[in-house]
Amino acid sequence: GAVNADALAGLERDGYALVPGALAAEAVAGLREALAPWRGVGVRDLASKSPAVAALAAGPVVRDLVAPVLGPGARLVRSILFDKRPEANWHVAWHQDLSVAVAEAADVPGFVAASVKEGIAHVQPPVSVLEGMVTLRLHLDDADGGNGAL
Question: Helix, strand, or coil here: 130?
Fold first, then answer.
């Protein structure tokens, strides 16, 4: 379901909120099928490569989750797929994501640590920019304490 008052309060208090069942089972199955070509890998800029992901990002499910937090003008700025499995996993050290994808690298005060990841320019913006963003994480597999999910 959409973000309710309890989830919003949890987001404010804890920095995250869980919204079980945000996607119907049929939608999850459709996404799993659409993403099958990338099974066991990580993919950046996924919305430009998968029409199903682009439609989800622009559709009512994501809008209903994001708009109460960021307002109706919110838009997708990065889409990444991580399909981690016991037989196809990779180590990532503990970190905090601070980089954002940008249209092009430019010398702008406050935006630092420019890099290019898979042909996409990234920078670390000022905290004020990060404070106006939210990460939406969709689990298409079971994610619980028994399988190492975050």
Answer: helix
What is the β-pairing status of strands 42-44 and 80-82?
A: antiparallel
How far, in Å, CA of 43 to CA of 52, rounded?
A: 14
pTM of the model: 0.82
The answer to whether the CB of 60 falls within 8 A of the CB of 19 is: no
The angle, 0 to 180 degrees and rounded to 10, between the axes of the packed helices 51-58 and 25-34 is 140
User: What is the token pair recorded at 47?
Assistant: 């919305």
Q: Can you tell me the distance from the alpha carbon of 134 to that of 78, in angstroms, rounded to the nearest whole number? A: 11
- Is the pLDDT at 85 greater than 80, yes or no? no
Which residues, at least 6 apart from 117, have a Cβ–Cβ distance to it below 8 Å?
A: 44, 99
